[in-house]
Design goal:
heterodimer, A: mainly alpha, Rna Polymerase Sigma Factor, Chain: A, Arc Repressor Mutant, subunit A, 2 domains, 9 helices, 74% helix, B: mainly alpha, two-stranded antiparallel ribbon, 8 helices, 7% strand
Chain lengths: 188, 229
Amino acid sequence: MQELVLNPPARLLSAEQSREEGLASAQREFELRLAECGPLAFRVARSVLRNEADAEDIAQEALLKAYRKFADLRDPSRFRAWVVRISFRLALDRWRSLKRRERRETEWASPERQPAELNAEQIAVSNQFQARLEKALEQLPDKARLVLVLSAIQGYTLEEVAAMLEIPLGTVKSRLFFARKRLAEKLR
Amino acid sequence: MNCEQIQQEIRDHFAAGEPAIPARLMTHQESCSECRDYFQSHASLFRAIDQGLSSIANSPVPPSLLPAVRARLAGQPAGHSFRFHGWPLAALATAALVVVFAFFWHRPTQRDKAVPDVARVTAPRTLDPERDTPVIPESPRRAELRPHPGKQRSSSTLPAEVTHDEPSSEVIVLAEEREAFVRFVAEVPENRAAAAGLTRRMPENEPIVEIALLTIKPVEVKLLESSEE
């Protein structure tokens, strides 16, 4: 007696397998980048929003947005720049929305907006100066502000910032120069 | 080089964040206390800016960030979350719906099957002798639809003739007008005058329109003479 075995068509099976493999590969690749880009997205958002809860929310949104379009990204090495830009843009939108509602000042007064742990040196420059610094930072043009924040994040050189923003190193330097000079004028 | 230019250079030097101090600035400071103070104040200002920026840019990342992102990503495949892969299936389903709809829309009813294009509607058999108007049956459903034996199609509607002797009178109704005629008959009890008009006799003095018959003679075919001859 012959045994009948139902086999799916080989072409369909291979297409489905390759699709699943592609998805799994994309997920692995994204997971590798998440460890690096997650904190970066948070810090960029935090520098704009000055609120950890909002910054975490924005970082999550940015990472989810990047994940949804991860398969469309032709050059995976540009993922970091992509996440930074998404996070910065989302944070700016959130910040403007908050400002429009005129809640910013009251929320800023709440203790949760202060940096979590301050060392003695930070305490020395904090409080009044820190508030003035952040106020001056807000008034910078967006491009200069982003360069300033990214260059202040530990572990990133100016070359890496240039690569991250996909702009020439000279542009990074000129924006940084302009931003620091403007900050000094406001804080002097 | 005057002090104003030196102070401008000091500002640019710190703004550029260059670690090496130009030699001319150092030499000028040794002889100028005002520029030395300016240099020192700017050094402390930029140090404070750098520290403040560092505290802003390197704020500690909440430990809940990555687990929360992973949890939100759990149900979403990378790059395919908002793509719909069922288009072929949806197209098939739509096509099937269209076919079913078309079938029911054009399906012939039992009555349509029984009656060909042109049908004769039998008029009421009896007349009210006193009023010379037809006695209309109670129910319009009694109007009988029968296929016309001879003609397949007619372009004219003849008035029904109702006599006492004839077994029945007939009205030839186009297939597309049949439904409307049935509705008309159904309303006849309320519109007896209209029914009478429908079933009246043709007056004898009314001119009869005659349609000349068209005769087609066989065509004589001749071969064309060629132009060379």
